[in-house]
Description:
With 295 residues, this protein is α/β, with parallel strands linked by helices.
Amino acid sequence: MEKKEKVLAAADPGCGRVPVNKIIPFSAVDGPGNRTAVFLQGCNFDCRYCHNPETRNLCRNCGSCVGKCPKGALFTDEDGKVRFCPEKCCGCDTCIHVCPFGCSPRIRMMCAEEVFAEVKKQQPYIRGITVSGGECTLYPDFLEKLFVLARGAGLGTLIDSNGTLDFEKYPQLLAVTDGVMLDIKSWDLEDHLRVTGAANERVLKNLEYLAASGRLFEVRTVVVPELFDCEKTVRETARLAASYLGRGNIRYKIIAYRPMGVREAYSHYHVPDQAFLDHLAELARREGMTDVLVV
């Protein structure tokens, strides 16, 4: 079974419930303005530099974490599944550290209505919602339902994605999506396989399709010079994105790799210096990008 299929099999499509890792009520870094950010569990990439590696896999209900939780926030139900009581959690991350499969048991199976009920608590104080992951587009029907509710309440909607969903086949989802924040991990296929364990043909097609349709809000590249050709990736991504700037503004966010949160086996990469990051930003501007942010 493919990894994407394994992730989807653990969701509950009959009830429309998906695994929610966390909901951040207020975020200033997940799109324009103050937003509520929703993070779903499960990803079909295995990025070496992933800064939230516990969001990649779904809980296998092994129970290793249950007895280690200092607050009793985890328990095994009568069906042998690990359940999470968020009101008891102290956020110590012990469960994540002891998990033999590198995942988080701190998930809630929620439908769009339940997630939006959480969002509504902040409604007077936020501009919109952003759904991320893991990889949130593994659950496109959920996204569409949630965004319909958000749009009905006057809230903006953004998707943070690795670009593996064929967006062209989901016009109804895009119709209720203000924009997509698209990760371009690397340009060359060989590099992309080394970085993520997956191909990038669909990602690059989405880059062009979303830009052409005016739905590409932002492209992002995490800079890890030891892993891939960063200069080529930034140059080619900027060149393609800039050719569609007439359809709407597109930001290019160039992000420095940092070891915080990265799995120990991949925490040895060097943090790129400011001079190299500025050089990449200048490459993007030379190709026509006008909105370039280095973080």
